[in-house]
Amino acid sequence: MTDRVYYTEPSCRRFDATVTRAFDHNGRPAVTLNRTAFYPTSGGQPFDTGLLGGTSVLETIDEGDEVVHVLAAPLTEGARVTGEIDWGRRFDHMQQHTGQHILSGAFEQLFDNATVGFHLGAEVSTIDLARDAQAGEIERAIDESNRIVWEDRPVAIRFVSKAEAAALALRKEPLREGSLRLIDISGYDLCACGGTHVDRTGSIGLIAVVGVERMRGGSRLAFVCGARALRALRGYRDVVAGGVRALSVLPAELPAAIERLQEESKELRKQVKGLQEKLAEREGARLAAAAPEINGVRVVVEALDGWDVAGLKALAAAATSSARACVVLATVTTPVSIVIACSPAVPVDANATLQQLLRRFSGRGGGKPGLAQGGGLEAPAQDVAAAASTLIESMLAG
User: What angle do CA 234, 237, 241 make, to 5 degrees?
Assistant: First the structure.
């Protein structure tokens, strides 16, 4: 059985131990120790990394009575080793996990909204709340959480029996039996937890919610604490500064300026669409008139620059309505998008032709005998056009 130092001394960075077992774990060298300060993945918190006997600890795994340390190089059974925790990673996890206790406690106390899920991610962490949280409630919970942080309250570790825990005001009912490890944020939150936490709430620095989404009748909140909150603030600062420079406005004017640009862009897209439709009518008729004829059918096969798929469809429609025609139009850039259209009574199936091209050049798409479109063709546009031209010519010649 591994003596888990992190349970009682979460701030332990360096420790001595004996290798009790050396073995292969899924193709990688691994050991168990008589005691360890390396935290294994558990309860939504990721594992610790660091050094053990001079070699890197790549992963730490909880396997019941033992903690398995997966290593970059093997160690010898019975060896005395020194372990060194990657403190930057550990302290970050301690900040996020303790911050989660406080944030969850705030929602519980202020709004009777329980936390039903927690995940400590590499960039942001999340809590899942049982009920949908309104914007005003979230802001109140954030303010309350940071009040507890800035009061620098002590965070204690207590061990109690299940019977003793039943008489305590725990935030949520513990699921495990036997001795329970409690994290006690003085005068605020008491919860059974096996994770690592800071000694005082002031070490968290700041708790910030950076995203909210609805989840199965509740809310999922993304949050950052401590150094992560500082990095997030710097990121937002740089984004705002870039927007301010690009739009030549004050920071407070940025949202309105973006909305104005969106409206202008929407109007411009509408104008471009109208102009493109008018141009397509004339250009489609021109393409049909200039195309070679096979058995009374104008065959238009072109790779066109500056037209999107919607524009190509408009061109094809104009060409097939102005003449008895079969039209294949493709974008110039790879992967290629393609539109195939045929006038009524033309003996070419547009969708069947497209499927042959997709089998040859990959991609996806579909349609009807008179009109089909596809995209993602992995070949130069000229090769796609040449293959399409060969297919159509053979159909019409037959």
Answer: 140
Compute the distance between CA of residue 111 and CA of residue 38 in angstroms, rounded to an integer.
36
Strand 297-304 vs strand 325-331: parallel, antiparallel, or unpaired? parallel
Render pLDDT for 107-165 as a digit per residue (tens, 0 to 9).
999 999 999 999 999 999 999 999 999 999 999 999 999 999 999 999 999 999 988 98
Has residue 286 been placed in a domain?
A: yes
Assess whether 101 and 230 both reside in one domain.
Answer: yes
Q: Is 158 helix (H, G, I), strand (E, B) or coil?
A: strand
Question: Is there a contact between 375 and 337 (Cβ–Cβ < 8 Å)?
Answer: yes
* Domain shared by 302 and 335, yes or no: yes
Q: Total domain count for the chain?
A: 3
SS3 state of residue 167 = coil
**For residue 398, is pLDDT > 70?**
no
Q: What's the DSSP call for residue 306? A: S
Domain end residue (candidates: 25, 55, 85): 85
Residues 230-249 pLDDT 10s: 999 999 999 999 999 999 99
pTM, to two decimals: 0.73
CA-nearest of 50, 58, 39 to 96 is 39
Rounded CA separation 18/262 (Å): 64
Residue 264 lies in a domain: no
How far is Cα 301 from Cα 322, in angstroms, rounded to an integer?
A: 16
Residue 369 has which token pair?
């005998």
Which of 198, 33, 170, 37 lies closest to 105, judged by CA?
A: 170
Considering the domain architecture, whether residues 38 and 115 belong to the same structural domain is answered as no
- Beta-bridged to residue 377, according to DSSP, are 336
SS3 category, 181 = strand
Structural domain containing residue 295: 281-397
If you count them, how many residues does the chain have? 398
